[in-house]
Structure formats: C-alpha cells, structure tokens
Design goal:
- By secondary structure, the chain is an alpha+beta fold.
- The protein has 1 helix and 5 strands, in the order E-E-E-E-E-H.
- A 5-stranded antiparallel sheet has the order 3-2-1-4-5, with helices on one face.
- Strand 2 and strand 3 form a beta hairpin.
C-alpha cells in the first residue's frame, strides 16, 4: 500500500530543478514538483496543498481534502499508538492477553 501525505507548499526553493519546500503537519521538507510542474493550470504555487509520496508532490489537492486526510491519518495514528501500548502491556505481563488460552481448574 502506498500512502500520500498532504503538505502545503511554503516556498519554491529551486524553480530550475522543480523543487519546493512543503510543510507537512509542522515538518518542513524539500520535495520535487516535477510531476505537477510549476507553470500553467494545475502547476504548483506557494500556498497550494499537494499530496506527497516518497519525496514527490503527486497532485495538487484542495484544502478541504488536505485537512480531511490529515485528520484521518491522526485518528489512525491514535489507534496505532493504542495497539502498540496494549501489545507492550501484554508483553510486560501488565494485563492478560485476551487471545491466550485460559487455564482451567479441575
């Protein structure tokens, strides 16, 4: 599965090399905008939201879609963190594994 993360373009850092600086939920990183370009309709501009995957801006998206996707990723992150916490507690013996066979008394 591939995951694209929404980020907002904060600067065109190198127009000749088609590079932009993108803010992804507070973290800024350089990405290539070669797949969407800088010129013409649909070209990347400062303030645009883009879908970023492995260092490339794959598509320009609207702000509502970007916010919705970021919110969904944060919710998944919370569920994932809870799963890790529960697993850690099981491994450390802090609470029983619900899938483990139960001891029986005769």
């Amino acid at each position: 599965m591939c995951l694209g993360i929404p980020g907002q373009i904060v600067a065109i850092s190198d127009p000749a090399a088609l590079r932009a600086k993108v803010d992804v939920d507070g973290v800024r990183r350089e990405v290539s905008v070669a797949l969407i370009g800088l010129d013409g309709p649909g070209g990347a501009r400062v303030g645009d939201w883009v879908l970023v995957h492995v260092g490339f801006a794959m598509a320009v998206i609207d702000e509502a879609e970007a916010k919705e996707t970021l919110d969904a990723l944060k919710r998944l992150g919370d569920m994932y963190e809870q799963e890790l916490s529960d697993y850690s507690a099981i491994v450390e013996g802090l609470h029983p594994d619900p899938a483990a066979p139960r001891a029986t008394t005769s």
